[in-house]
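ingest -> validate -> predict -> emit
validate: passed (alphabet ok, no gaps, 304 aa)
predict: started
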Amino acid sequence: MEYVIATTVSTDEVHLADGTVMENQPGSAGFYALAGVRVFTDKVGICGGIGPEYLPRHEKWYRDNNVSTDGLIVRGAVAPTIVIHYYPDGSRTDEPNVGLSEFRALDPSLDEVFRCCGPETKGVYVFKDLDRDYLDGLIGGRLRFGYKLMWEISEDACKPENADVIESYLKYIDIFSINRGEAKLLYGIDDETEAERRLAAASPNWVFFRRGSQGAHMLAQGVSYDCPSAKDIQVVDTTGGGNSSSGAVLYACCEGYSPRMAGCMGSAAAAEIIKQFGVPELFTPELTRGAMERAQRLCGEKND
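emit:
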């Protein structure tokens, strides 16, 4: 596979603030990252543990969109289901039917990730807490296979006591993806600008600093590039918007796009995800062309 998504998948049940409920949606951070890559290419697959009911529920989407399921391995008795509630004040809660440890036990092993990799592999995405053995293994795989590595950090790892260790990894991580709330938690501060400054100082590579509806900043080699969000869409369901933008940024980085264009491709991918419930049922060449045109427009809105 050219792009490998390494993370657990789930089924989502989404409750919007207006009372709308959408059941049986394929989900998880990694699944939405896969969708972000899929906006631009079908050379992507996902690896991880699943329960026996996952593929009967969702295999049609993978088949219709030419996405490999070879890396999905039945390893648990139950496929995780996450009930997501959005509230009128903008807050959100996630209620999984399994505990965090059971959920993470379905993460792919390093061997399972590497079975999906080959000389053609350009990028690997992982959604992970601060698991040093796992990160060390993926960094070793980066040297072995030559791929670029994106680490999208999970919120529970963003604690001040972890900041020094996380910063020490950034020289080995091609793209580090974090949202502004997580960044403030990581440094134990309320100043978004200072959190961004510290990340930029810590990483010699790219930091994709996600800012919700305000878009993102791409931090690269001491420069902060403003990557605006798309304003020409009607937002229906924001679930997975940040994760999908991360996947698109990994693709753009591996394909040689500039930092700003990569961030704008992330915004364009997120726009395709949040304008309906869940991910699009079918990714088409027209969708890809439209997303690229939107990214080019967004990239032209600001000058370096």
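The CA atoms of residues 198 and 215 lie 19 Å apart.
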